[in-house]
Amino acid sequence: MARRKAVQPQIDLVDAFSEFSRFKNIDRTTLMGVLEDVFRTMVRKDYGSDENFEIIVNVDKGDIQGFREREVVEDFELEDETRQIPLSEALLVDPDYEVGDVLAEEINFLTFGRKMVQTAKQTLTQKIRDLEKQGVVDQYKEMIGTIIVGEVYQVWRNEILVLHEGAELILPKSEQIPKDRFRKGDTLRAVVLDVNMRNNNPRIIISRAAPLFLEKLFEQEVPEIFDGLINIRGIVREPGERAKVAVESYDDRIDPVGACVGMKGSRIHGIVRELRNENIDVISYTTNNVLYIQRALSPAKITSIKLDDEEGLAKVFLKPDQISLAIGKSGLNIKLAGKLTNYQIDVLREQEPGDEEDIELDEFDDEIDPWIIEELKRIGCDTARNVLDLSASELLRRTDLEEEIIEHVIAVLKAEFEED
Predict the structure, then answer these.
(1) Phi/psi at 399 (5° precision)
(2) Total structural domains in the chain?
């Protein structure tokens, strides 16, 4: 049976490591484990091993004790002074000791030397700080998808630093709405998007440009979404410009679009203001792909749609006065509709009796580079007359093409019809 020998008052954590009192986010069990690990390291450095040592941490009292256990052996049988103690020495501690007993002798950590204690203090402080950082990461990982309200405390060219409950959050340029203008001290709302550790420091990314931010704003403003009566089936955005939100209701008595918009737009107006007047189209989701595409291209009125489900293509036919509505400003309407429905949407003018013959743009690939044709298709111009119906200035504004290229394209297309 082991008997312990107390030799002096123990090292006081409150005195030696007074700064620990500020580490409030670390649970008691974890702190005890860290303290024990640091002091075992001290023991290994001084004695070469910690196998026969017991470290007892009392966080509540702010002290720590260490005991070295050694087996009592006959004096002439002593082989390892670290693990064994001769009987003659054990008897000086207690005359009742016998060979085979275990003597637990208390360690005086203060005798380890000032340098070692200082090193242990620095090591412990660093480990506690690492635990605090990991605690911040764990806390915000649970908050991914949550809207936070923080204070801007630094505005840089490529990112904005935001304070939230003492933690530093990052709003990168790519996650800002282009129309955002914040100054130091401003309050902003954003959604927690990603949390990780970089260079041993927490990196918490927030976003105002992600579809997730718009989704969470709807949850805040529309009780039926928060309660699960209305479900958001899809969101696509061009931050600060336009967004499309597809919703469906699990209750036949609830109009999902009307509930999201609110009386006279009361619910959606707050979201629009938060997103710098982003134009938000709320549509009713349906499994009917033709109807879904038709709704996604609103406010344009569709004449007919031909689907190729295998290729994911949709040819949409409209009257001439509806084409520009379907395409939208800078091609945004058709672009977002395509993302929402997962179809590549081609806008075509409805052929009416008496209309002139039209030619697919692909037929001109010997005179017009394919990448130019693709750029024209991107804005809904699939045929020669689609292109010629737009002025050169309008084509220049809607596409990424240079003026010389547009003039060349127009000349080629006009020449084809003049030959006819």
Answers:
(1) -110, 175
(2) 2
CA gap 284, 252 in Å, rounded: 13
Q: Which domain holds residue 202?
A: 143-209
Helix-helix angle 403-419:370-378, to 10 degrees = 90
Residues 121 and 169 placed together within one structural domain of the fold: no
Q: Which residues of the chain have pLDDT under 50?
A: 5-19, 21, 354, 420
Q: What are phi and psi of 226, to 5 degrees?
A: -60, -40
Which residue's structure tokens are 């702010």? Answer: 62
Q: How far apart are the first and last CA of the chain?
A: 111
9 and 85, same structural domain?
yes
CA–CA gap between residue 148 and residue 140 (Å, rounded): 11
What does the angle CA 414 – CA 419 – CA 420 come to, to the nearest 5 degrees?
A: 100
**Is the N-terminal amide bond of 299 cis, ω within 30° of 0?**
yes
Q: What is the pLDDT of residues 354-386, one digit of tens each?
A: 455 678 888 888 888 989 988 888 887 878 888
Give the global pTM. 0.68
Q: φ and ψ at 221, to 5 degrees? A: -90, -25
Q: Do 198 and 105 have their domain in common?
A: no
